[in-house]
Write the structure tokens for this entry.
Amino acid sequence: MLPAQGPNEPKQSLKGWPLLLVSFVVLMVAFCAGRFSLAIFYPVFIKKFGWTHAQVVGGGSVVLLLIGILGPLVGWLADKFSPKAVLLVGMLVCAASLALLSTTQTLTEWYAFCVLLGAGIASVSLVPTSMLIAPWFTKQRGLAVGVINAGVGAGGAIVPNLTRSWIQQHGYAGAYQLLACTLAIPILLTLLLVRGGFNHRSSGQSAHGLAAHTLARASEVARGPLFWIFGMSVFFAAHTQTGIQENLTLYLTGQGVSPANAAFALSVLLGMSAFGKLLGGAVADRFSTRVSLLMSNLWLILGIVGLFTVDPHSSVIYAIAALFGMGFGGIFNAPSLIAFEYFGTEKVGTILGLFMMFFGLGTSSGSLLAGQIYDQTHRYTAAFTVDLVSCVLAFILLLVVRRSSAASPLPLGVIKKIA
């Protein structure tokens, strides 16, 4: 259960709702345009350039890796300057990288542009968006995190089908250019609704002092066993997430399912993840983050078992995708919920970024390893078995976590400076 409202923490304010909307749209458009369009381009590039599954999925793995390893830096920058500044720069980088991806002709270009895209997506990820809204939602912070992360589910339901349609109409180059143009929506919304400039430090606090305090607190947290238990659980669950999600369309099309139906299955998975995020956030508020994540891991396990037992051509495969999507969404909440419940919201950017690093390392290894196993065996059975074992390990780690005491609330003065 999230910490109760403290004496210095403001009551739930209507001022937080515009920030909730901004975070939702940023994740739905900016994050999803780059993150969930990539898998739809994989079959196109395999057919056009003759790349292997591992080579083409490698670009997506680079993106996922950077989302993770850049998490601490993104959180530190959001602490030092403001979430607004980080988000705006990140969206501009995302738009530029999507435009460059439209010119892809070689593997070198594919990987180079994916590096730039990964840096951009890391800057519009759960770290700055969660930091933007967390101080304003003290009673239902888990649900608020679930709401903004539902933007990823909503975007995930829209982007794959929209991307496939644009590829059919305009080719892969035109599709990437149109995706780049969509970034104008969250950029304008952020400029209009997020008040304040690009630096939220108080006049008496130097950049060096703030940076030293933030890094010292993160270093102290990283020495505790709770950090590593949660971190490894996030890693294993995230590995499972993308091991399935990034390879689902390739698996289904390889089984003779049409590209349209395979894309629809991916959209169902990502769409249901929105419900999983909301449910996971509500359960975290009512019980605890630990219980929420145990539930989400269980959905993932049942979804993978379904993939092993259901005929890919059957309509039941969409129900299996939905079941997996619920778990997918709940795990997506993990870095933010863990950081806020167990470590508070004050100067938490670097800590949140560290959990995002575990998440990113897991997501990148999941997609890449599945592609490599397929290239060796020409079957996804072994790859999905590894994902199942990984999820079971995440579940076991969560079983040994003890509830900790509530974290300290964020002072009102800090909140006014970052909104």
Notes: The chain is about 80% helix and 0% strand. The chain has a mean pLDDT of 84.
